[in-house]
């Protein structure tokens, strides 16, 4: 393989490894959740962020920022979850111009069912592929990269 101009072979390998690992692991996690529960990884992420939010509700714009997608994409995800009865959308009591998404009781139950499948997948496809020392190094390095991009720190 020839590296891109301005990148060494080692730098190119690290970059491509990151891209490949991210794509493969997220595709596997998505397939496992869809096969077992009919809910995508994207849907799981929305439910998970809402479950951690105060009152289990978030502004749609804040939710988009949390799951690192555009407002339009988060709207489509929330609409799909709303059709399943897992979330609701409503105007904020504080500001009628703001739309908030809220987790329903059915959403809480769905998240409880989805989480063990997701955790098993994360463990099998990521955590268990690394030695404990490597896991610490990867975590430290990736949070440093994320921090340089002004992404929030660890949850």
Could you characterize what this model shows?
This protein has 155 residues and is mainly α. The protein has helices at 9-37, 41-52, 60-66, 71-83, 105-125, 132-148; strands at 57-59, 87-91, 99-103. A three-stranded antiparallel sheet has the order 1-3-2. The longest helix is centred in the first third of the chain and has 29 residues, at 9-37. The model is unreliable at 151-155 (pLDDT under 50).
Based on the model shown, name its key terms.
155 residues; mainly alpha
Describe the structure concisely.
The chain has 155 residues and is mostly helical. The chain has helices at 9-37, 41-52, 60-66, 71-83, 105-125, 132-148; strands at 57-59, 87-91, 99-103.
User: What is the spatial order of strands in the main beta sheet?
Assistant: 1-3-2
How would you classify the helix and strand content by structural class? mainly alpha
Largest sheet: 3 strands, antiparallel
Distance between the termini: 37 Å
In DSSP terms, counting alpha (H) and pi (I) runs of 4 or more, how many helices?
Answer: 6
What is the 3D form?
Answer: globular
SSE string = HHEHHEEHH
Unreliable sequence segments: 151-155
Helix content: 55-70%
Report the β-strand fraction as a percent range. Answer: 5-15%
Layout: helices, strands, pairs:
Layout: H1 9-37, H2 41-52, E1 57-59, H3 60-66, H4 71-83, E2 87-91, E3 99-103, H5 105-125, H6 132-148
Antiparallel strand pairs: 1-3, 2-3
Helix pairs in contact: 1-5, 2-5, 3-4
């Amino acid at each position: 393989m020839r590296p891109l101009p301005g990148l060494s072979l080692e730098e190119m390998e690290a970059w491509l490894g990151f891209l490949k690992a991210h794509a493969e692991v997220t595709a596997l996690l998505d397939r496992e959740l869809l096969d077992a529960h009919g809910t995508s990884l994207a849907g799981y992420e929305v439910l998970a962020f809402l479950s951690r939010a105060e009152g289990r509700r978030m502004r749609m714009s804040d939710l988009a920022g949390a799951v690192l997608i555009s407002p339009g994409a988060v709207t489509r995800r929330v609409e799909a979850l709303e059709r399943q009865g897992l979330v609701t959308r409503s105007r904020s009591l504080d500001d009628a111009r703001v739309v908030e998404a809220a987790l329903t009781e059915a959403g809480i139950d769905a998240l409880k069912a989805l989480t063990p499948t997701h955790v098993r997948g994360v463990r099998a496809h990521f955590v268990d592929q690394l030695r404990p020392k490597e896991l610490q190094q990867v975590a430290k390095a990736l949070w440093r990269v994320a921090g340089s991009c002004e992404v929030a720190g660890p949850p």
